[in-house]
Amino acid sequence: MDKHPFESDEATPLAGPLIETLRAVGYDTQTAVADLIDNSISAGASNVWLHFNWDGDNSTIDLLDDGSGMNARELIDAMRPGSQSPLETRSEKDLGRFGLGLKTASFSQCRSLTVISKRENYAICTRSWDLDYVEQTNRWMLLEYPVLSKDRERLESLQSGTMIRWNNLDRLVKGTRKENAQDLDRFMTIMADVRDHLRMVFHRFLEQGRLSIWLNDRKLEAWDPYLRGFDATQPQPEEVFWEGLVRVKPYVLPHHSKLDREAFAQAAGPNGWNAQQGFYIYRNERLLVAGSWLGMFKKEEHCKLARIMIDVPNSMDREWDIDIKKSVARPLAMLRDELRRIASQITTKRTEIRN
């Protein structure tokens, strides 16, 4: 690239301060783990094994997938913050966005990130970010620790795959003790929140058998927001916008009188019936927004059975203002009136919702 005639001084970001700033993007543990699984899906994984390992202050979280894996050069690129521009054209099945997910999601939860990967016909490779080392040296320097024998065995049992380990979970377990029951309960609550979030966010992948997620050796079952397996569910006609790129499918869920107690409790979702009403926005079938009226209406009791599926492709990320965490999406201004119309039709079906 030609030098700009007014170039003056290179202002390279300081490694220590910037990497600490990246920790404040705003992930919680659920969204951080989901971001890692996005990478697994983009790598063609069929299985993801997630382990929460309780050891008090030394607890760890591991993720292993059977995706395509990486060789050493690819791994170094993947570990680089901003490894891919959001302006680049991605595969239509790619769940990535900014080239930051692996790093920002991990840094938000831990101070030590290790990735071990195996691409078919390549040697196992590993690299680590140690935020304490970056802070001390103020250098963007990856570390290469020896691969533990148990980790090598797990990867060698796969044709290809990637393992991610979070050590030094300062945001989750700092100051906790292994033998303290309350500390263990808090850790288990975090794990349960992650379980419920993954069942919801990846429910379409789980339903279709395209992905299996195992949490501490238990296979996760999909949580279907629309109760499509119940006769009393009322699917509404699908509408298509933007030359077929945006698809909107409303559902009116069964009244509680038509569900048994267990089904009614399960259908409430992670946040409860009232909180889960509204639009559900999917990007490449991965759920981004789980129940929001997008500022158009208030959540009210009489609307709690209305849930509306919206599908958008990753080619419309800018139009929908997708954020780094992939947990926020805002509709195009020209679509807001159509979405408001559809939502009004569903939420005013008071008689149908009650019966």
Q: What does this protein structure show overall?
A:
A hairpin with a 2-residue loop joins strand 11 (278-283) and strand 12 (286-292). The chain has helices spanning 15-22, 29-42, 72-79, 101-107, 131-137, 149-156, 170-173, 181-201, 203-207, 261-267, 333-347, 350-354, and strands spanning 47-53, 60-65, 112-118, 125-130, 161-167, 212-215, 218-219, 234-235, 239-241, 246-252, 278-283, 286-292, 306-312. It has two domains: 15-219, Histidine kinase-like ATPase, C-terminal domain (Heat Shock Protein 90), CATH 3.30.565; 234-354, Ribosomal Protein S5, domain 2. It has a seven-stranded mixed sheet with strand order 4-3-5-2-1-6-7, with helices on both faces. Strands 8, 9, 10, 11, 12 and 13 form a six-stranded mixed sheet that branches. It is an alpha+beta fold and 355 residues long. The N and C termini lie far apart (66 Å). The model is unreliable at 350-355 (pLDDT under 50). The chain is globular, with a radius of gyration of 22 Å.
User: In percent, how helical is the residue content?
Assistant: 25-40%
- So what's the overall shape? globular
The strand line-up of the biggest sheet is 4-3-5-2-1-6-7
According to CATH, the homologous superfamily of the largest domain is: Histidine kinase-like ATPase, C-terminal domain
Provide the structure class.
alpha+beta
CATH topology of the largest domain: Heat Shock Protein 90
Compute the average pLDDT. 89
- The rounded distance between the terminal residues' Cα atoms is 66 Å
Radius of gyration, whole Å? 22 Å
Q: Structurally, how many domains make up the residues?
A: 2
